[in-house]
């Protein structure tokens, strides 16, 4: 049972332990091996010389994924109160989705279908009598295997979903411009070049290469008016691409901010200084704080440096190197406030003693917060004064 639990932990896409990392490394290795076999298998000479080895490699990778698939399916049945919020295939599970029918439904999720094809696609195609080169092509499904482990791709999918309205708008504008450009080119060029511009469908090829600013140059307008048209279509193409890039970039930025905000909220609520203030203030503070993950033994800043932010310790511990000894600060405590208050250089070097999660508050935000929430800044100031007195005493 313990084995099963650790296997389950290993294939959980959100797990961080060693078993999970090993499992992911093995998956990446299998993907690389399998894809190399599929891709090289389309080179006629190689395919002829190493047909057996190539097919054996793809079958080996398929077998490994068949095992993994069986494991994920078997874990679907293992329910219980501590079920993770994602199922064995990495899809989110809502509380009301935990019945047997819903679990079977999970087998039809996109990632689960990828797993199915990755496990059985190549062997079944070979059994069905397809040519080995063609059968191996189904192994291309393996390229999708690492998707569930990539937070960046998950985020991309989210951004696309959230920005679908503006994206659809730009796409529509693109299609409108495309058709208008093709029609105009057809009207202007059909007499000069009946081959390339004799109909709207024929002119669409020119329109699409011009509007995307690809410009193969295989079809070019010959009349002066046609060239004028081409110029404006190219400019319109740049505008469309810029719009697309802008929408995606701002979508990414707000998605990142949202993710950081949610994380900060959880962490801020754990800091005693903020615990007593209401949800509104926590939200206000969470927006200002930037989470920073640090491993153990990392210098956060050094004595004598200029101070631009202070830090709250959400998890972990740091040591403050002081004359004649060191002080340890743990969860819920803060440091780096003195430089912000006095404008003097850092009075001490700070080092993490173990992996820690810090929340950074920048100078400008510290001032804004102090003005808006005097009770918070009073508490911080009081502690800073106590520390200053301690420093003076140490200095003798
Ligand atoms: P700052 O001077 O910005 O950078 C070093 C930090 O170490 C300082 O702010 C305080 O947050 C912290 N610090 C300095 N002296 C002490 C002390 N005596 N006890 C605990 N923390 C201290």
Low-pLDDT runs of 5+ residues are 78-83
Query: Whole-number average pLDDT?
Result: 88
Ends distance: 61 Å
H/E element string? Answer: HHHHHHHHHHHHHHEEEEEEHEEHH
Structural class: alpha+beta
Major sheet: 4 strands, antiparallel
Which hetero ligands occur in this complex?
adenosine-3',5'-cyclic-monophosphate
* Arrangement of strands in the largest sheet: 1-8-3-6
- As an assembly, this protein is single chain
Radius of gyration: 30 Å
> What is the count of helical runs?
17
Number of strands: 8
| General shape | extended
- Measured as a percent range, the helix fraction is 55-70%
Beta strand %? 5-15%
Any overview of this molecule?
The chain is an alpha+beta fold and 396 residues long. It has helices at 2-11, 18-40, 44-49, 51-77, 100-106, 110-127, 132-137, 151-162, 164-189, 194-197, 200-211, 224-270, 272-275, 279-288, 337-342, 363-372, 374-395; strands at 290-294, 299-301, 309-315, 318-322, 325-329, 334-335, 349-352, 356-362. Strands 1-8-3-6 form a four-stranded antiparallel beta sheet. A four-stranded antiparallel beta sheet has the order 2-7-4-5, with no helix packed on it. A hairpin with a 2-residue loop joins β4 and β5 (325-329). α2 (18-40) runs antiparallel to α4. The longest helix has 47 residues, at 224-270. Adenosine-3',5'-cyclic-monophosphate is lined by residues 307, 320, 322, 327, 335-339, 346-348, 350, 387, 390-391.
């Amino acid at each position: 049972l313990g084995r099963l639990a650790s296997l389950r932990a290993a294939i959980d896409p959100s797990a961080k332990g060693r078993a999970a990392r090993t499992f992911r490394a093995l998956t990446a290795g299998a993907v690389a091996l399998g894809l190399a076999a599929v891709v090289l298998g389309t080179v006629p000479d190689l395919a002829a010389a190493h047909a057996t080895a190539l097919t054996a490699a793809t079958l080996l990778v398929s077998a490994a994924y068949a095992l993994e698939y069986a494991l994920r399916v078997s874990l679907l049945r293992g329910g219980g109160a501590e079920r993770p919020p994602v199922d064995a295939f990495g899809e989110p599970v809502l509380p009301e989705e935990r019945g047997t029918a819903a679990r079977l439904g999970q087998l039809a999720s996109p990632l689960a279908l990828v797993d199915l094809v990755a496990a059985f696609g190549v062997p079944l195609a070979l059994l069905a009598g397809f040519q080995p080169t063609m059968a191996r092509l189904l192994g291309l499904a393996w390229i999708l295997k690492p998707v569930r482990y990539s937070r960046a791709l998950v985020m991309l999918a989210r951004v696309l979903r959230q920005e679908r309205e503006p994206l659809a708008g730009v796409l529509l504008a693109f299609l409108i411009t495309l058709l208008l450009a093709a029609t105009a080119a057809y009207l202007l060029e059909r007499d000069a070049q009946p081959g390339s511009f004799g109909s709207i469908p024929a002119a669409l090829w020119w329109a699409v290469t011009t509007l995307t600013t690809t410009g193969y140059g295989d079809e070019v307008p010959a009349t002066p008016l046609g060239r004028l048209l081409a110029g404006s279509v190219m400019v319109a193409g740049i505008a469309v691409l810029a719009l697309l890039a802008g929408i995606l970039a701002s979508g990414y930025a707000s998605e990142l901010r949202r993710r950081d905000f949610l994380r900060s909220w959880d962490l801020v609520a754990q800091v005693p200084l903020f615990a007593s203030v209401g949800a509104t203030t926590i939200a206000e503070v969470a927006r200002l704080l930037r989470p920073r993950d640090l491993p153990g033994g990392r210098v956060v800043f050094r004595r004598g440096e200029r101070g631009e932010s202070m830090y709250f310790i959400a998890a972990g511990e740091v040591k403050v190197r002081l004359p004649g000894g060191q002080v340890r600060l743990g969860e819920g405590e803060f440091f780096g406030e003195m430089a912000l208050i006095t404008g003097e250089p850092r009075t001490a070097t700070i080092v993490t003693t173990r992996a820690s999660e810090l929340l950074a508050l920048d100078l400008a935000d510290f001032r804004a917060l102090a003005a808006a929430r005097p009770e918070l800044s009073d508490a911080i100031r009081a502690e800073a004064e106590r520390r200053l007195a301690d420093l003076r005493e140490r200095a003798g």
